[in-house]
Model the fold of this input.
Amino acid sequence: MANERRVTIGLIQHECGASVESNLESTIAGIKRACARGAQIVCTQELFKSVYFCQTQTLEYFKLAEPIPGPTTDLLCRTARENHTILIASLFEKRSSGVYHNSAVIIDETGRLLGVYRKLHIPDDPQFNEKYYFTPGDTGIRTWDTKYGKIGVQICWDQWFPEAARINCLQGAEILFYPTAIGWIPSEKPSQGNKQHSAWETIQRSHATANGCFVASINRVGFEAHPNTEGLEFWGQSFISDTQGCILARASSERCEELVTSIDLAEIDTTRLQWPFLRDRRIDLYGELSCRMIDDSVSKSDFN
Done:
């Protein structure tokens, strides 16, 4: 129906080791390989420079944090410029003494830092002790208008909240990017592993379906041992979903790789005409979404 608007996405899925320098080098090499295959927008996994340190509460790990802008963003800006790509990269940000964020930088193809997104929803689960390290983000939900399309960026735990995805799309986002670090606790995998992975993939595919947009989710891969824990087995399987929630491409569960896929942004118009969820929203009825919970007694009073 509409003219094609082809864009090629690259997702960098890899294992992380103890060496920050090696992790950074591996990621830069992956970005370059993805761009050599035609990637125009490239996204890293969550906290790609280090192991997933949030498995425990350890003061020493705050030394991994860095300012934005800073040396790493300077390198990433140069890499984006030299490879003519939009780059989304997840970093542990030191904003000031005592204030740290789980952040993502958005860099355009000229190497200009367009902005920063700070993770809004911060989990606190066994071996995912993020509330100890990260201040909740204050950037709000944002969309960036780039040369290759309008993009929304959220981080990991944000991906479970349909309200955030909807707001991004109401702002005009055509592709939602989710840098992620999620995996199995070994003792839970036999009974819960398939359910957990299915839920993770399903919620993000549903964002694509409900909003008629593309979704790109990037996860790390490999087993990361950690003192006094069971360790985490990251399940990889980064993927790109089309505007009806169908998987266009999926990375492996075990290998480091660059997932590179071409999408057609013109499909958004077609999908939203055929499935006009945005047209049929009853915005006059959704005020209660701003409540933490709705008091049952209030609801029941309507029937007295």
Remarks:
- Helices lie at 20-36, 71-83, 130-133, 162-170, 189-211, 267-274, 296-301.
